[in-house]
Amino acid sequence: MAAGLIAAPFILPYLGFTPSTINRILVWGLFGIGFDILFGFTGLLSFGQSAFFGTGGMVAAYLLTIVNFPYVVTAVFIGTIAAALVGYLVGLIALRRTGIYFAMITVAIAEVFYFVEFSPLSAYTGGENGLPGVPTPTLPLGFTTIQFNSDSSLYAFLAFWYFVGMVLALRIVRSPVGAVLRAIRDNPLRAAAVGHNIHSYKLTAFVIAAAYAGFAGGLLGIMQGFMPPDAFTFDTSGQLVMQTAIGGAGTLFGPLVGATVWLYLSDFLQTTLHLGATWKLVLGVVFVLLVCFLRRGLIGGMSNLYALVTRPVATPIKPGQGAVPTPAMTVEEEQKAIAVEIATAPVAAPMPAAHRQNGDFSGLILEAMALTKRYGGLVANSAIDFSVRHGERRGIIGPNGAGKTTFFKMLTCEIEPTSGRIMFEGRDITGMNVTDVCQLGLTKSYQVNQLFTRLTVRENVTIAALAELRGKFRLDLFRRLLKIPGLTEQVEHTLALVNLTDRAERPVAALAYGEKRRLEVGLALASSPSLLLLDEPLAGMSPRERVEMVKLLKSIGQGRTMIIIDHDMDSLFELVERVTVLQEGRVLVEGTPEEIKGNKAVQEAYLGGVVAA
Ligand code: ATP
If you measure from the C-alpha of residue 228 to the centroid of ligand 1, how many angstroms do you get, rounded to a whole number? Predict the structure, then answer.
């Protein structure tokens, strides 16, 4: 990057870039770094970044022109802090909603800023005239003073700050905070469920983006010698979004590349081809084509091309090589063979179970009292009394729609019970949120996989382990992941436990279904819960995958308290000590697997009266 920044002013003029365009590219590139952390890394699309760009720029320009504050760079930093503070306040409001509503709130708030800058605050901002006379910076060296007052010297000044901005951003995205931001982008529900306070992390990304915008706004005033009021317009926010999409979101360099394309085309179409106002029409077509054909932008397209060129060529299998053909087996024979194979395979030792457990190990770990959940007129769970002792392995069965998943959702505080209480390790957790409950040591694996699909297997497990090792929120923005004590061991241990060590570097999308199910359990395990709930861990698996999963559950169940829901009763009865049967939202019966197998009421519940008849 340093080499590129040094070479750019020598090469780009030959390609038709003017010195002032090159400087503008750097300001937009810096503005875009923060936006990319917010949009590309956290998945929050804001159309209101102009509010912070304008705020930072106006505060710095006001200090330098009206107040006559003598220190240019300090003024820019004060503008940055002002933009970050404004970002914090706006984020508190905007982040109450997600998706399109979040985007619309940011648009509305930016429009408010535009209005305030133009009318009530025009005495400070110059209204529609902006603030002229912003001075250029100087660098006193003792024996001489460097003046950054020409295009080329300003380039050096801007390139230096772009470099610093990029180094800081790279540290942030490679820190534990960066890892959690990516997890939130991929699956906010699961990021919260493994124990991260996603609201605080989103707010962090929002403030970082606002600070970058404010800093870039300050530099804009310096670069132009004038702080323009149009920094606050919707056009500014829109241009930033489009430049990031053109260059490639989630790359940090994308906005710089996008700004290069945008500003070059703007100059070329308007100045060289004399298209006047129609240049935006051409730019619009270019934007649509680029986004349609390069879905990850220019940088994404280049990295795809690179991967294609460097992909190893598959060598054809020579005769005699490859798998040895086995004689045809029946399904039962194959299942037996698999069972033997897995039984003899080495198994990782179970994780140190329930490290959070303290106090009375013989007593109850979980107690639900008269737990009820109504959806309008439908009663999904009705006055359920349920308790589990430390170290117990409990199964829950029941016909479809009996209310098993609803019951789990209430236990992990994903949904609030209509009435009743839940006690976990002697503490009333009724009405708490899923993040806090996970931090206390109660978590679950989901019936339908909830993975971080754009991350690798190792990164997935790391996200869950981070929540346990760092707590639900921590601002270690510049810390390296590898520096977190115990993280590597915990991730490796979990990977070994769910038998995914050799798949660790694969993206989740490339895993087979059975491997995804094991990773689903691995995510719950990585946060070292003292009570682990498993919602249909065997659902949808092939016979081989089932045998493997049962083996895995047996190994992780040693010394751990678990509650398992599943429809595969043969496997479930092998795994648990007691079984609770739910029917129509109520507890039908509870007992050992042997008692449940022979229970007439259970048979009737499943066969709908056929046995009784
Ligand atoms: P399965 O074995 O098929 O997963 P289950 O025993 O887990 O079923 P639940 O998913 O808990 O059953 O559903 C219990 C009842 O509550 C069902 O009748 C279901 O339609 C209803 N239900 C679940 N979630 C909601 C919701 N969000 N809104 C309305 N009704 C719901």
Answer: 57
